[in-house]
Fold this sequence. Notes:
This protein is mainly beta and about 140 residues long. It has one domain (about 10-135): Mog1/PsbP, alpha/beta/alpha sandwich (Protein Transport Mog1p, Chain A). About 10% of the residues lie in helices and about 50% in strands. The chain has 2 helices and 7 strands. A 7-stranded antiparallel sheet has the order 1-2-3-7-6-5-4. Strand 5 and strand 6 form a beta hairpin.
Amino acid sequence: MRLSIPKSWKAETPEMSATIQRFTSYDGKGNEKILVVIHDLSEEQQNLVLNEKSFAEMIPPQSSLIRTEAIALDGLPGIMVEVEEILHLSNIKKKIRMLQFMLAHNNKLYCVQGSIGPAELNQDLDHHIKNMNLYSGLLLPEHA
């Protein structure tokens, strides 16, 4: 996989086992993140079809699927998914908006996720999401 992360983003230790790397932008408030995830697919998952229906089944109930789009990454079929999740933090509701670019290749699920938040429920995060569309170029599995 080839990654081109802006120099202004700080690499941090990931919290989840399938997360290869986590990056945070501290140019703003430190609430913009990029996660790079490679998940080994189980035998049952190896025929995984990435589409709106399959993804809607994966997200937690406090999340809303905003949009999906079929995409091609390095000539391989993938999916772009935008999700908003509501968090309950000490009697305060906040939201996180995520844009994920995923593809399944050679029994692995590759994902680059850009996120912004937590933010106030009424905060418009559309500008940040438009900037995250550039992250799709980060996800290019190497071919043998």
